[in-house]
## 1
Amino acid sequence: MESQQFWSNGAISMQTDFSWPLMSNNVTRSDLDALITYLQKDDPRLTHGPAVFDFESQWSSWLGVEHSVMLNSGASANDLTMLALREMHGTGEVIVPPLTWVSDVASVLHAGHKPVFVDINPKSLAMDTDKVIAAITPQTKAVFLTHVLGFNGLTNELVAELNRLGIPLIEDVCESHGATHNGKKVGTFGWASNFSFYFAHHMTTIEGGMISTNDSDLYEMSRMLRSHGMLRENLNVKTKQKYLIEFPELNPDFIFTAASHNMRPTELNGILGLSQLDRLDSNVELRTRNFKHFLSILDPAIFRTDFEIEGSSNYAFTLVLKTADFLLRDQVETALQVAKIEFRRGLSGGGNQLRQPYLRNIKGLPSASEMIETEHVHHYSWYIGNYPELKSEQIDWLGSVLKGISGKK
Ligand SMILES: Cc1ncc(COP(=O)(O)O)c(C=O)c1O
């Protein structure tokens, strides 16, 4: 099949030698025109300003929360949330999955918390509820759940138990914009939620991230932490007054309330966000339709098809072998390579984080092999791009590519 056949609406692949690249370019002509129109103004403001503020407010309405703070990446959203947790609740244990992105674990370490790893539920790919509840101790400061590759990772039991115990739930929704739990968007159940707008995700601001919350104190804290911890970013007059009285010898413009970083976006990221948000829902719908079609072309004797897909919003197709079979794995990879279909093994973040070198000097962590379900995914799974422009025939063709796979020599 010719690579051009897969593309329509001017979507452009970065790598021309793949017939089916991992991602399509989801910055459209109209997004670029929005930027150009803005730049043609007399003296356009480029550092973050009204457009970012407007995007934050539209994002909050889209999601269904009170407040959002835009950042320069999803990793920054992770870092900021963990710093805010430290500033507002102190350091302690944070329950994390081994199947996630590096920044979810690194942010816990950066802020001085201790990561406590809990294995996943193979049907949702998020942390197993019973294992999370069993891992809670008096030192638990938060549960940091990742919604993996568009699946809803929440359960009623988890939400109810964390509410009962008063333990903050933090949702990483960087891979799952628009997914729902009980019909309500994920990212609205926790104390805080994190989003990424990196190029490869459901929508993009080139680079970008968001933290969303219903807690106005966390909102003010996030505004400060985004900008070096600076008090002047805080919109709460009472908080400002408190600091001014306590630190009269400091210039009010330069009061740094917490050790933080610069995680600010630019105004151009905000303009892109506003332009992209308009088509997020329709793209989620198309991707969901594609994903259901994808599951229907898989041989359930070879691949897992029993995912919990209610409310999912997948921007990738998840291929997971049913059995731990290296021969089968080689056959899948060869078939995809021959067909020039780009893939990533290990799903979110390349599989089991406990196998990664950045954790090798951290004491007291479990061994990677203790995470049995994550280990399976680490070795025997892949993801493939799922974008709105995919055609039905292309998904059928993927089915024919995978058909010859049997595990037998
Ligand atoms: C689950 C998850 N969290 C955080 C991030 C970090 O987002 P960003 O690439 O915008 O820094 C990613 C990145 O893809 C991710 O998949």
## 2
Amino acid sequence: MKTVISAKEIEDLIATGGDVDAATKDAILTPSAKDALRDYSNSRRGTGNSASPSPPARVLNSRSPKAELEAYFNSPHAHALKEQLCEVGRRLWQRAYVDGNGGNIAIRAGEDIALCTPTLVSKGFMKPEDMCLVDFEGNQLCGTKKRTSEILMHLQIMKRQPKAVATCHCHPPYSTGFAVAGLAPPTCMIPEYEVFASVAVAPYRTPGTPEMGKLVADLADKHNTILMANHGVVSWSHNNVEDAYFKMEILEAYCRTVLVTAQLGKSPNTFTPAQLQDLLKIKQSLGIPDPRHGLKECELCDNDQWRPGVACAVPAKPEGSAGYDSEAEAAVQAITDQILAQMK
Ligand SMILES: [Zn+2]
């Protein structure tokens, strides 16, 4: 039987000087493992015609000399990351995940520094020269435009979650609807959502405040996609900024699907605990966090009492406790009734 190799295993092999070619020759590679392998081959071939320019010889930090930071900020490597920020911004705008000047994106660029999008610019029309370099306290180090006012949240995630290489924040309407209701979407319905996203809800605080950032960062250990109550969504990726953006597509498509399902007048078919366990195994092999990792099948809720807004109990509900937040359930039921009434 062929073995499955994840990106994490490729990284470990490279780090320990193992034989990557031999290990991957007859194995099945996960999509991110394929990316890791391609990056590794590019780096071995040298950067001559590689798509991604090589990073600085030594890792920069906020205490690096100003000239060194400026040189990096104007280097081909930083330029490639700035282009990625622009490209993700364009996709966010095209899919109507951002409104006005809303949304912001960041990429870790050293020990405690990050490249990020500027404030007061539509994410759909950014240019590489608009981007900013900041330290992890939010002080701007390079760039002519002022950095986003919501940068603290991105930096607090990166500080608390060392694996976070990129973060993405936007206001996609269906997902934000759940955030306004204060509800994580119900689980156990679509594989992509179970495998790639780990969703939680952070309480509302004024955008841009350190307190907001802290509440989000508190969840970043076990969750890569966080609904910000009455505001929007922020995600982080251990791979790259496009992957952080993919969480948004996956979450938003899922929230739309859940609402369509809720209107069909029939209880949805959901995964069995065994089916969910299989998906969680894939998730774990991809290095994606989930509070359900390590739980036994019998502890995984199978949503058999599904109504709009009912989420898996994680961990399983203690004996004799009341049902899942009955007040929230009632609120969702009322909203669903209203929507249905308006459609008549
Ligand atoms: Zn926002």
